[in-house]
Amino acid sequence: MKILAIETSCDDTAVAVLEITRGRFKILSNIISSQVKLHAKYGGVYPMLAKREHQRNLPIVLNKALRRAGFVNIKYQKGTSSFYETANTKKGPNIDLIAVTVGPGLEPCLWVGVNFANELAKKLNLPIIPINHVEAHLVANFVRSNFQFPISNFQKIFPAIGLVVSGGHTQLILMKNFGEYKILGETRDDAAGECFDKTARILGLGYPGGPAIAAEAARHKPKAISYKPSLPRPMIYHKNYDFSFSGLKTAVLYKVKGEGLKAKDKKYIQAMCWEIQQAIIDVLIYKTLKAANDFKVKSIILGGGVAANKELRKQFAEKIKKEIPDSLFLIPDSKFCTDNAVMIAAAAYLHFLEKKPKAKKEMKAEANLEIG
Ligand code: KG4
Ligand code: ZN
Questions:
Q1: For 225-246, how does the pLDDT look when each residue is reduced to its tens digit (9 = 90+)?
Q2: What value does the mean pLDDT take over residues 16-29?
Q3: Cα–Cα distance between 219 and 95 in angstroms, integer?
Q4: 193 Cβ partners below 8 Å, 6+ apart?
Q5: What is the pLDDT of residue 297?
Q6: Whose CA is nearest to atom 21 of ligand 1?
Q7: For ligand 1, which residues put their CB under 6 angstroms from it?
């Protein structure tokens, strides 16, 4: 079967076509149009600007995804009665299902994808499966060519602790089974990705801040400077599973202001980036492992843009191997950590397998949709 998926929850316009044959995923196309450059000058995402860009880009991205997936001569044409134009026929592509992110995310952005999916589904007479963006970030773990479980057996990883760390979310989720979730804790203020983005802005680095801070941190040589910026690890030893990253951002702001000219020094910025990254990693690892021990789960699974961070991936793997070697550690390929539509299609397939929720004819955007 073939699934066409649409993702517009934040600042990436993404469409993918996923084929599933004999329990294996094959990515036929994965097109992402990033708005990073547009938002870079503001240091964050402006919802109404992002919405306009999605409206402009979605037809182009869809057509590219269809072409890449082998549906040649098929085109989306807005406002015409023949939705698809093929060389000889008026038939649409042989897609079985449409999947779309309905939430959580920026409401105006979500509606662009949802309206588009509704229109497509009507024209092609196809069912739509609504997808939760946070769940999809975790499902991204199942999209790899050499996945060790057949998809039909994916339930074997449960119960699991899921950690979603992105620009909009930092959530620790107890995954009892697929579709059976309980949020154990989440950030009380800024998400981990947001903290990377905001501190990068304070240091005059680019947007998105995560990759910029990671790159500077990698250049840091501990012996290169005599002073060492130190930062708090907010809420690390609190008994709950909640997070808070805005205090970390404020600490960076005060330190940088207090240092005056020193804060403009290349080596200082590298050391500060290393410390920011390490403070975030320390908190995420400590809390996730605590949850995994407390709930005696079989697996720890990560997702979201921050999970692309190389140091975080390395340190998580090392710590789990040392402290809970019997548990399985899953982390998506880096390219599937950040927003994409392949994870949306994969989540739709798992829902289709499990028959929950039922496919519908029309969707609504739900900006505050919760997992669980
Ligand atoms: O999942 P995502 O693409 O979008 C949301 O759902 O929010 O995550 C984007 C976030 C941004 O805050 C970005 O700075 C962060 O992920 N990010 C990283 C890295 N790559 C992206 N953070 C740390 N290290 C990275 N390598
Ligand atoms: Zn995301």
A1: 776 789 999 999 999 999 999 9
A2: 90
A3: 47
A4: 165, 166, 167, 168, 170, 208, 209, 210, 304, 305, 306
A5: 98
A6: 305
A7: 10, 166-168, 193-194, 196-197, 208-211, 214, 304-306, 308-309, 338-339
Assigned token pair, 300: 């720890």
Contact criterion met (CB below 8 Å) for 60 and 114 = no
Q: Does the global pTM surpass 0.90?
A: yes
Chain segment 89-103, per-residue pLDDT in tens: 456 678 999 999 999
Question: Tokens in use for 248?
Answer: 């970390």
Distances (CA, A) of 149 to 93, 127, 155: 30, 28, 9
Ligand 1 atom having least distance to the Cα of 137: 1
Burial classification of residue 114, based on how many CB atoms lie within 10 Å of its CB (0-12 exposed, 13-18 middle, 19 or more buried): buried
Whole-number Å distance between alpha carbons of 77 and 175: 41
Q: Give residue 205 CA to ligand 2 midpoint distance, Å.
A: 22
**What would the mean pLDDT of 182-210 be, rounded to a whole number?**
95
- Helix 246-259 to helix 192-202 angle (10° resolution) is 10
What CATH number labels 155-331?
Answer: 3.30.420.40
Strand arrangement of the beta sheet that strand 170-177 belongs to:
180-186, 170-177, 160-165, 299-303, 328-330
Q: What is the pLDDT of residues 319-348, one digit of tens each?
A: 999 999 999 999 999 999 999 999 999 999
Provide the 10 A C-beta neighbour count for residue 321: 11
Annotated domain spans of the chain: 2-143+336-354, 155-331
CATH number listed for the domain at residues 2-143+336-354: 3.30.420.40
Q: Which of 12, 199, 306 to mutate to test the pocket of ligand 1 (most atoms within 8 A of CB)?
A: 306
Q: What's the gap in Å between 211 CA and the centre of ligand 1?
A: 8
